[in-house]
Design brief:
The structure holds two protein chains of two kinds. Chain A is built from three helices and 19 strands. Chain A has one domain: Porin (Beta Barrel), CATH 2.40.160.10. Chain A is mostly beta strands. Chain A starts with 13 loop residues before the first strand and ends with a strand. The mean pLDDT of chain A is about 90. By secondary structure, chain B is mostly beta strands. Helix content of chain B is about 15%, strand content about 45%. Chain B has five helices and 13 strands. A 13-stranded antiparallel sheet of chain B has the order 6-5-4-3-2-1-13-12-11-10-9-8-7. In chain B, strand 3 and strand 4 form a beta hairpin. In chain B, about 45% of the residues are buried. The N terminus of chain B is likely disordered. Classes of the chains: A mainly beta, B mainly beta. At the A-B interface, strand 11, strand 12 and strand 13 of A face strand 1, strand 2, strand 6 and helix 5 of B.
Chain lengths: ~375, ~260
């Protein structure tokens, strides 16, 4: 009899995989010419199936940054060292001088205990409660930047997570994230079930200084995918004197017979603005960075705007060449993010990606400004 | 992409076309009965397989290996075991619902049904070659149009014309079915204007996992010389009982 999880006898108890990537960043900076930076990036994923029911996981990112923006940015090394770290300090700069920074960090380091329908995980891990395609107001444990396309694994949280599977697509879950103070704590429960061919979830808990409630769904309208997430956050100190924040999103996606894939989504953020971003005219060249940094990294505020729209088209020109275009638009200052990409498989494990990111917005002085960043990335997976 | 493996029974139906079963009495049933036998023999059973797929083009080749588990036509699990980039990615199918596990981002993605109707992983297989267990029987009229010998095997040659309102892209299919094993040895797929578009060829017919099946399948487009897609069985196990809860989101994340 083949049982769930009984396939572990054959394969090796210790696995290692990962990749080496070389990411080049090109920023046209007006009179300063073209700023070029490099990120050499190695990822190592270790998994040790120690003994039923224990599995140990450690995943490391080893990164070498060098280039012009690295040199021009004050305390670039400190920024790299702190970003994506959580409560425990699992990040270390081996070298940090001028235009060269070498950083090693563990973004996963956990013990997994799985027995029957129980799954308990302790340590630095990714708790991904998002169910929608693009924006995830239900992803309370790790907020991340949409623009950081090169970090697909996303940061980890130092947390305890207990899951109990109640059916083939249903489960109950509780997770608590370690924190230095009560004001930084995130703890929540999630109930997920499948009904009417929809995955449906409800969640509730504490997110930092707020009580949080959320819900999400993933199903279809006809042959199109239909997904969404809602979340409401209300400060638990003096709840009557403060107002809550509501964030809601839904999206539809469809894949045509010729493999063209289209996706569209809408995000409402009650905290967001309908006026242009409060920006002075930034020097040309840094415009792209300035606008990107206005998109805060919090589940409460996935966009600085009250209304945001997303559309995306992807098309495989051939089985080894993929072309795509994504656009985020907000009526506030006609802010636009345009993101073309081209992915080319050079062989079974070597991939080339060419990515563009252009930002446009209206400033306080009513000027319409924009800036672009271009990337080329070579990735070898093993 | 790989989703098509799962399309309305995708790989399982393919394997139905692809493998098919034990010997039958050599009598001459009518065309519809032949197709019914050829098409429907895997139903209600389980299978576990390891399959290698190669997309071959004049300038390049891409290979992928997969492990698959199926039970009836409603339950299926596919795990990509190579290349390294995609290793660990898994797909779960339960009736009409399909979930995708992306281990790198620790996320389960529910796939829209339309994604199951595209061409298959950029290969030369299209959905209509692989899907719809019932359509081979119910969406076509069947006519026995002769006998042929292919690769030394005595075959029935059957013409299949889709019914008027059938959800089928082909205008006509001519298929050669081995009289001994009921395996579809060769199929020619024509468009609505009567032009040959694809030829599908099955070979390496031998016992695997206790049954006589075709272990090598090629799909060759008519208009693109040097293009083809090849499926090979690396291993196959039939009818070993699999619990229903093997086909769960929890197990999709764990299976190796």
């Amino acid at each position: 009899m083949v049982k769930a999880q009984s396939q572990n006898s054959g394969p090796s108890p210790l696995t290692l995989n990962g990749y080496i990537k070389d990411l080049r960043t090109y920023i046209p900076a007006g009179t300063n010419g073209l700023l070029v930076d490099n990120l050499l990036h190695n990822r190592l994923n270790f998994k040790w199936y120690a003994a039923e029911p224990l599995t140990l996981v450690a995943e490391a990112r080893n990164r070498v940054f060098y280039g012009e923006v690295v040199g021009l940015t004050p305390s670039f090394g400190t920024l790299v060292n702190d970003a994506n770290n959580d409560v425990f300090d699992l990040s270390h700069n081996l070298f940090d001088k001028k235009a060269l920074v070498v950083n090693v960090m563990l973004d996963r380091a956990y013990i997994d205990f799985t027995k029957d329908k129980w799954e308990v995980r302790l340590g630095r891990q990714r708790i991904n409660w998002g169910i929608n395609t693009i924006w995830n107001p239900n992803d309370w444990f790790n907020a991340y930047s949409f623009f950081d396309f090169d970090y697909e694994e996303r940061p980890g949280s130092d947390a305890l997570r207990i899951q109990y599977y109640t059916g083939y697509a249903s489960s109950m879950e509780v997770a608590v994230k370690a924190a230095d103070s009560l004001a930084d704590m995130v703890g929540a429960g999630l109930w997920r079930f499948n009904r009417w061919n929809y995955d449906i979830q409800f969640l509730a808990g504490v997110m930092r200084t707020d009580l949080a409630l959320g819900s999400g769904w993933a199903g279809n309208l006809g042959n199109a995918g239909f997904k969404g997430e809602l979340a409401y956050f209300h400060p638990y100190r003096s709840p009557l004197d403060t107002s809550g924040v509501f964030s809601g999103t839904f999206g539809v996606d469809y894949a045509f017979k010729n493999s063209l894939y289209l996706s569209g989504a809408f995000l409402y953020n009650s905290l967001g603005i309908t006026d242009p971003l409060p920006l002075n005219d930034p020097a040309s060249g840094v415009a792209a960075n300035t606008i990107a940094s206005a998109f805060q990294l919090s589940p409460k505020s996935l966009s600085p705007f009250k209304y945001s729209f997303f559309t995306q088209a992807m098309y495989p020109i051939s089985p080894i060449v993929n072309a795509g275009l994504a656009i985020i638009y907000s009526t506030a200052g006609h802010t636009m993010f345009i993101n073309p990409l081209l992915g080319i498989s050079l062989n079974d494990n070597l991939d080339l990606a060419l990515v563009g990111q252009s930002f446009f917005t209206t400033t306080l002085s009513d000027a319409y400004i924009g800036g672009s960043v271009f990337f080329s990335r070579l990735k070898w997976s093993f | 992409m790989i989703l098509h493996l799962l399309s309305k029974g995708g790989i399982w139906a393919t394997l139905g076309l692809f493998l098919v079963l034990t010997a039958f009495q050599d009598q001459s049933p009518d065309a519809r009965q032949i197709i019914e036998r050829s098409d429907g023999l895997l139903r209600g059973e389980t299978s576990q397989a390891e399959i290698k797929m190669a997309i071959i083009r004049p300038d390049w080749t891409r290979e992928m290996t997969l492990k698959t588990w199926s039970k009836g036509k409603d339950l299926g699990l596919v795990l990509i075991t190579s290349p390294a980039r995609d290793k660990g990615t898994a797909f779960l199918k339960r009736e009409k619902e399909v979930w995708n596990w992306q281990p790198r981002i620790d996320r389960v993605i529910k796939l829209p049904p339309s994604m199951m109707m595209q061409s298959w992983m950029g290969s030369d297989f299209t959905n209509d070659d692989l899907v719809k267990e019932s359509s081979m029987v119910e969406d076509y009229t069947h006519r026995l149009i002769g006998d042929s010998i292919i690769d030394g095997r005595k075959c029935w040659k059957i013409e299949m014309i889709p019914l008027e309102d059938a959800p089928v892209v082909w205008g006509k299919i001519i298929t050669w079915i081995d009289r001994e094993t009921y395996i579809q040895i060769r199929s020619e797929l024509f468009d609505e204007d009567g032009f040959l578009v694809y030829t599908m060829m099955a070979s390496d017919i031998r016992e695997m996992g206790g049954k006589t099946i075709a272990n090598h399948l090629e799909m060759i487009p008519e208009d693109n010389p040097g293009h083809k897609t090849v499926l090979k069985n690396l291993s196959f196990v039939f009818d070993e009982p699999i619990e229903d809860n093997f086909f769960s989101v929890q197990n999709m994340k764990r299976v190796r």
